[in-house]
Amino acid sequence: xxxxxxxxxxxxxxxxxxxxxxxxxxxxxxxxxxxxxxxxxxxxxxxxxxxxxxxxxxxxxxxxxxxxxxxxxxxxxxxxxxxxxxxxxxxxxxxxxxxxxxxxxxxxxxxxxxxxxxxxxxxxxxxxxxxxxxxxxxxxxxxxxxxxxxxxxxxxxxxxxxxxxxxxxxxxxxxxxxxxxxxxxxxxxxxxxxxxxxxxxxxxxxxxxxxxxxxxxxxxxxxxxxxxxxxxxxxxxxxxxxxxxxxxxxxxxxxxxxxxxxxxxxxxxxxxxxxxxxxxxxxxxxxxxxxxxxxxxxxxxxxxxxxxxxxxxxxxxxxxxxxxxxxxxxxxxxxxxxxxxxxxxxxxxx
Length: 350
Prior knowledge:
With 350 residues, the protein is mainly beta. It folds into 2 domains: 7-164 and 302-346; 168-298, Jelly Rolls. It has one helix spanning 168-173; strands at residues 7-10, 24-28, 41-45, 58-65, 85-88, 95-102, 109-114, 118-126, 133-137, 142-150, 157-161, 179-181, 193-197, 205-211, 217-226, 233-239, 248-254, 261-262, 267-275, 290-298, 305-308, 311-313, 320-323, 329-332, 335-337, 344-346. Strands 1, 4, 6, 8, 10, 21, 22, 24 and 25 form a 9-stranded parallel β-sheet that branches. Residues 1-6, 30-53 and 73-80 have low confidence and may be disordered.
């Protein structure tokens, strides 16, 4: 059995909340000059999820008091928040257990632009001047288990699914973000994998098979669907394996952005097909049509957010606010009350 020694990280109380220490930061590092002199504790994560040299960080039994900042340009151009505990741009997120965050000048905990699941257990986030816990994710699968979130100046839990397309600049910064042709690329074993689907001709289909590590699951996220003619339809078929003789998971006809879809195993076959009422019509197929999507792997994703055995009370905005919900939110054996706006606010989604 491992022995854990509780660590307390405390700055000093500052009523102006501009001189607090910078908190603890888990950030995927690139070869770049440090742009800030803010004191922080950091880890470095490898840029590739499947990189065997990458190790998952663990933070257990830590109290973080009077941290967090709200100055200009704290993390490059992400100036709106700098939490007491920050996870930024990580593809493998740390495991958190028995964490207490109090009196942050900003959010208590902030997970920004993360690309894998989040696990937080047996923890407290309270009396912070921002949100108790804020998550902006490209994956989802956020689990809060036995977490107490109360008396924060923002939402108790703020969750947003960011499935926007990568810009050209962002693709140039990281080759992993480059969009590959769904119809012309060989089957992928690296994740996340980004694709652009353009039908090669009217009424045709393209197929991609994916295989990941054992005991993981695969999820397809849709970023955008652009159609020149509203009468055009596309169909997606998902099979729980690498061949279409495996169990069918989904068979959906669509002309707009879809909710996220997951496998039940570490293998997945995705087939995209073009269709319209008259495939011989000149307006049936347009070369400007395109679908942007990406596939990720992790230890499971059957909901955007799981909240279990928790207590979310007395926050100045909503208890739980969800923006761009792509799957579902699961709340079980949890108390959400006495928040100033809504208990649960689902702003938008598929």
